């Protein structure tokens, strides 16, 4: 049933959760507003604040917590650890940033790891399987950089300070 804000029955403007199964709304409810979590997990288009923030499906917004994880996310994730499984478009900032699928944007932190990365990695250690962009840091590794193919046994696989592949 639609509410006064035009929300469907499986949507809400607010979520508060101790765990994904102990929350005001079920984990399948779309949150379009504010989510406050000890550990929360919902599809969302919202400001997500908590210790552990999980975003399922195609979500978007700002996640601010100790740990942020998402399936597919557009926006900003600030935390100690940020993880994206499928796609991320935006900015991950934390101690450790990890993207399994496709990442487009900026990763800034101590350790940045991505499978398919397009944009800028800024950190102490930057690693990308497939880089289309620039890495700035103490250790920078782009596995697809064709320059590395010229070395015997691929002994050199990265550059200090700056690395790129386009």
Provide a descriptive summary of the structure in words.
This protein has no helices and 6 strands. It has 166 residues and is mainly β.
Note the topology:
Blueprint: E1 11-19, E2 22-23, E3 30-42, E4 45-78, E5 81-142, E6 158-165
Q: Counting H and I runs of at least 4 residues, what is the number of helices?
A: 0
Q: Report the order of strands and helices.
A: EEEEEE
What structural class do the secondary elements suggest? mainly beta
Mean pLDDT, as a whole number? 91
Beta-strand fraction estimate: over 45%
- The parts where pLDDT drops under 50 for at least 5 residues are none
Profile the largest sheet: 6 strands, mixed
- In percent, how helical is the residue content? under 10%
Give the spatial strand order of the biggest sheet.
2-1-3-4-5-6
Number of strands: 6
Distance between the termini: 50 Å
Radius of gyration of CA atoms, rounded to a whole number: 18 Å
Give the overall form. Answer: elongated
